[in-house]
Amino acid sequence: MNGQQAAVEALGIAVAAHVPVLLWGPPGTGKTSAVKAMADAMGWPCETVIASIREPSDFAGLPVVSGGQVHFAAPRWAQRLADAGGGLLFLDEISTAPPAVQAALLRVVLERVVGDVDLPDGVIVVAAANPPEQTADGWDLSAPLANRFCHLSWDVEPQAFAQGMAGGWPAPRLPSLPDDWESRLRHFRSLIAAFVTVRPGLTCEVPTDAARAGRGWPSPRTWEMASRLWTAAMAAGASTEAETALVTGAVGDGAGVELLMWHEEMDLPDPEDLLADPDGTEVPERGDRAFAVLSAVAAAVAAQPTPERWLAGWKVLARVGEHAPDVAAVPARVLAQCRPAGAVAPPEVKLFIPVLKDAGLL
């Protein structure tokens, strides 16, 4: 799979997962056309807003005095999306937006709020940008704005271009995610939690130079974004290239590649196997692997908290908690919070009484 195919696949997954995505590529490479084709193929309204010709009030709202109160009137494009109940908000040429406009975009991208208008949950934000050195009056993206996007590289592949010229360019396809795909979020969050216990410096690492700060970098917000994208990629059966593009696009190349390599090398047991045989299946002894496994077990129980699975979860946690209670402390809190109705606490809970009391769960 070439780089452009991976970017197209990753774009569809990010849109399906409702994660703001930013396409980076040279001018004239079809970024705008691809986004509009996607909206047309899905039958969605698409509002294109070119940031360089807008004022901060076009996103923060124009103050209007009415009835002795100040209201912030939203522009017509925002009202049309609100009335439609969903669609794509396409922020084109975002790297040409001056700092004041970028600041006004912060709430639009993260909270989908324009003036006093709350855009519906069905509105998805997609942006496109050229590298500053290839843009007229270009600016580096501010770190706060960049931290709100998954950044994808939109490269031109000669073979893909030749095929498109000869037979037309297909619209990016949105994958069909299962209705319950978000139930797997806990599992991937637990993997990321285990990873940052090993690499705590990557919890939040703001780049020191403006160019790197304007792309993906690790922070609590982008780790959460990465967990959502990773979950959606697995649910969609995405290619390895698209999975890598999504994770690294959220938290940056260094942190993203390190996470994926760490996960591949861990070779962790399936949490469902542990729940099916809590006394017989092997639990890793190494701290980070044990934490990842126990967190996955707790997440699996929380997603389907039957009394039998809940009791089995405590048995698995106790096998580690007897000699390393700190490793099992966080998963124990998760299990305590998802106790099924009528389930009686097993003897294994006694190991975690101090932890649960500190968390206010006893």
Number of DSSP strand runs: 9
- Report the uncertain regions: none
CATH topology of the domain at 21-148: Rossmann fold
> Between the first and last Cα atoms, what is the distance in angstroms?
53 Å
H/E element sequence: HEHEHEEHEHEEEHEHHHHHHHHHHH
Relative strand content: 5-15%
Q: With helices defined by DSSP (H or I, 4 residues minimum), what is the helix count?
A: 17
What percent of residues adopt helix (DSSP H or I)?
Answer: 40-55%
CATH architecture grouping of the domain at 21-148: 3-Layer(aba) Sandwich
What this model shows, in words?
A 5-stranded parallel β-sheet has the order 2-5-8-1-9, with helices on both faces. A two-stranded antiparallel sheet has the order 3-4. Among the domains are: 21-148, P-loop containing nucleotide triphosphate hydrolases (Rossmann fold, 3-Layer(aba) Sandwich); 267-358. It has helices at 3-16, 31-42, 57-60, 76-84, 99-111, 143-146, 158-167, 185-198, 210-213, 220-236, 240-251, 253-266, 271-276, 287-303, 307-321, 325-337, 353-358, and strands spanning 21-24, 46-50, 62-66, 69-73, 87-92, 113-114, 117-118, 123-129, 150-153. 51% of the residues lie in helices and 11% in strands. Helix 1 crosses helix 11 and helix 8 (185-198) packs across helix 10. The chain is an alpha/beta fold. The mean pLDDT is 87.
Quick summary:
The protein is α/β, with parallel strands linked by helices.
